[in-house]
Amino acid sequence: MNPSVKKLIETASKESKLIIGLMSGTSLDGLDIALAKVAGSGANTSVELLKFMTKDYQPELKKRLKAISSVPQVSLEKVCLLHSKLAELHAEFILSALDQWDITPNQIDCIASHGQTIYHAPKIQHQQDDMPNTTLQIGDGDHLAHKTGILTISDFRQKHTAAGGEGAPMVSFVDRALYTHKTKDRILLNIGGIANFTYLPSREKSAPVITTDTGPGNTLIDASMQSYFSKPFDKDGQIAQSGSVHKLSLEKLKADPYFQKPLPKTTGPEVFNLEWVQQQLDTLETEQLAPKNLVATLTHLSAQTIAESIKKVVPNLTDTTIYVSGGGFHNPALMQGIAESLPGCRIESFAEIGFDPDAKEAVLFAVLANEMLSGEGFLMDTDKEKINFGKISFPS
User: Fold this and answer.
1) pTM score over 0.85
2) What's the CATH number where 250 sits?
3) Which of 146, 275, 302, 380 is most deeply buried (CB count within 10 A of its CB)?
């Protein structure tokens, strides 16, 4: 038997595994690295976050990634080069993190690599009936496995689209397995570049689990900060809090057809970007918004569209708690906007039921990798078939 296959079988047979989960979001700011201990599988999965850190991308790399991300035309040479280069960089980050944690690579059972999304194209977006849902991530798993010497699982979103899904959001599979409560309804809200949430009705209810994107989370706020203030994001919501919301502009942005489309749905920066903002506001024929007022308006756009999407799924939130993760959780202006749009609703950090909210998505992929190795697969959204996620790359 091939030694790599033998090692794979031994790893899959373990009761618990040490898995490194990786996540790099549409904000292009860096790589989240989570070391998780994952045991069991399926509904019997348990997870413990042992270590977590974020490795920042250098400005030059951010510039190169931005040039090939969420744009309709791009140099294939640049995509090809960064596909391998980014994986090598991620491998260096992993080895550095393990060194800081005083852990050797041979103690790790596998790496779960999300990669870097450079284009997301569900049918709701490309609107070509003869074409499937599709999505593309770079950061080659084979380069990762070779450079780290660790079994690597990657390309998680491709199996979802192959089975008829949109490739996003991926959180529902793990959310419903780990965080469904016996008697209480929960909403798990993640605010990254794009915001998404999972509605988890209590186990005693027969209501379906619903997972959907809502629209922009941080992406428009970050883009406006980078364009007008030369800062990566609105730290502590300071700019938004110093500005005023332009109500006419806000209503115009909220009138975009995407927000009226039925749930569930997905989207990305391909749709929600500063060009989209400018196109919408140009039709108002009003004076250009002052930068701080634009940031305030975009912050409330995210807050209100998140809240309105949640209310479509759960009109009465009296007995439902929302647990928040992702970078948007650290923006007081955004969180205040959500709270004001959902009066009487309890909003808490995801840490109340899990762990560091910044690590949630990286841990998500660690759990998906564990299921790929040891489980029977997660039920697809239709609840008619089970699939495992990911492509396996063996170390050399």
Assistant:
1) yes
2) 3.30.420.40
3) 302
